[in-house]
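Incident log, structure service

09:12 report received: a user says their structure output differs between two submissions of the same chain.
09:20 pulled the input from the user's history:
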Amino acid sequence: MVAETVKTDQPIVVDAAQQVAGRMASKIAKLLIEGRHVVVLNAEAALMSGSKKNIFAEYMQRKELKSIVNPINAPHRPRQPNMILNRMIRGMLPRRKPKGQNAFKRLKVHIGIPTPYRTVEKMTFEDAKPKKPLQLYVTIGEIAVNQGWRKR
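09:34 re-ran on a clean worker, output below:
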């Protein structure tokens, strides 16, 4: 039995503000695999759980990876909040299969709220809401600033 993909013209608009990024990304990946178009807004306000010191150290360690032979061939890591969240969602898709590649093309992630999406109804996931006080979370925007991204 072949699973049918849902074809709709209207994308699902998700507001990432004050949602735990990993839980939200898994829900978004599921929607993308089902054939839906997804637009994520406020990528810089998504939350990551854990110790701020450990998260920053992990991202700085990733940034230090280099190639001994030629530093230009080092892995490129995203520094913008929208690209960090984009990469996180991509990691939850089967991106080497055609199904995953097509799903990834249906994803758009934005910093803030662009003008066309200001009046559109935004969706949030109940499972992705933080369970602890907000002070125990780090926003993706803080991680990006720590990596060298400058807000404009």
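09:41 both user submissions now match this output. Likely a transient worker issue. Closing.
09:42 reviewer note: The CA atoms of residues 19 and 126 lie 9 Å apart. Helices lie at 21-33, 52-63, 81-90, 98-105, 140-147.
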